[in-house]
């Protein structure tokens, strides 16, 4: 398996996390998003990372890739709560996986007008409150334990400091992230997604 991703891409980090947490052999290929190589553009259906290549087949869209990987491996599926896992992935795509990355991108790479910044920030705060509230009664998003729901919804939250959020203000999220960090094989996105040094 080959995963194409980038240092700052939490969407790519979701897939890398799954592969690391499940100890799945793979090759991580860092892609320069400011100058996308032609070999990458040739395989990437939307010109975005992540892309996963498995046995000659191309997979894209992070949550869809997570679904593929759980079905292939039988791991982190949520078991009988599979439908719940899918609900969280859909929520993530339109809420926390929209608000946090877009606000972060606007803060660090491409400033937006104040009203857009305000909109993104308020949406992010709403999403963090939703997660914090839902985590008040459980250790992980599904009662059965860690699943792709946690991998997907937590991905960008390991960079909360980059969007001016003190995670201590969201104690249930803080506890949840700490529990995810304890899972065997877990790696912070800054280490998991960095570009490998090329051999001299
Ligand atoms: N919905 C996609 C989002 C992927 C995405 O936004 N990828 C960004 C990096 S995080 C990207 O490749 N941006 C490069 C570009 O759009 O040119 C997913 O879940 O995989």
Compact overview of the structure:
Residues 1-77 form the GST N-terminal domain. InterPro entries: Glutathione-S-Trfase_C-like, Glutathione-S-Trfase_C_sf, Glutathione_S-Trfase, Glutathione_S-Trfase_N, Thioredoxin-like_sf. By secondary structure, the chain is an alpha+beta fold.
Description:
Strands 2-1-3-4 form a four-stranded mixed sheet, covered by helices on one side. It folds into two domains: 2-75 and 186-192, Glutaredoxin (3-Layer(aba) Sandwich), CATH 3.40.30; 79-181, Glutathione S-transferase Yfyf (Class Pi), Chain A, domain 2 (Up-down Bundle), CATH 1.20.1050.10. The protein contains nine helices and four strands. The mean pLDDT is 97. Helices cover 50% and strands 8% of the residues. Helix 1 links the parallel strand 1 (2-5) and strand 2. The structure holds glutathione. Glutathione is lined by residues 9, 11, 33, 47-50, 61-63. Residues 78-200 form the GST C-terminal domain. Residues 1-77 form the GST N-terminal domain.
What are its keywords?
200 residues, alpha+beta, Glutaredoxin, 2 domains, four-stranded mixed β-sheet, globular
